[in-house]
Write a structure and sequence with these properties.
Length: about 220
Amino acid sequence: MTNGCPTSSNPFTDDTFANDLIIQTVASGKYLIFRDGIDSFDRSYSISWDQVSVYGRQDAIQTYMSTGETISLSFPLKPSTIPDEFNRQLEAILALGKFARPYYSGGLIKESPILKIRYRNLIVEEYNDSKGTPLWIAPTSISVNYGDRARDVLAAGSQTRKLIVPKRISISLSAAVINVDKKYYDDDPTPIDLGEDTIIVSTQKEAAVANINGAK
């Protein structure tokens, strides 16, 4: 993990961070880099319909309203046993808490706490030839679990002051996805190629033709 919040014109195009989890604030451009992988990642979709019951009809008429997308992930941080490095890690975790707050200017809210996030080719907006473009998110919760197997480490330059260093720190993040690219089907007849498991979406209104594992 990086020691603090560096700034860059675009950390998502910097090959130095190609294999890292990147979290960046849109307002300030500051970002954090986590290099210990992730523990879990979930992506969910919720579809809202307006249901209208009509006399004499058994099922309600469904009128489409909206589709929402959310993500949740957890990732570890391995604390350093070197006091100065661990203190910088703690500063970075506190900075992550600031990422959940709005950007102020002159005592007034200037921008909401919108983030951009990417992890390799998994947590992305679009795959873009496997490089992956960052996902824009509105964070709904961030939690940090400092663990229960802490060690005492002497602070740098001290004979008595001890630091509490956990064995492992677990961080969880949940967010609503903000769509910045096209995410719907149009009249493009190009099939979605999943290799042997291929789903072909028809451009006609009547139905979609599916061919999964040879099933007709």
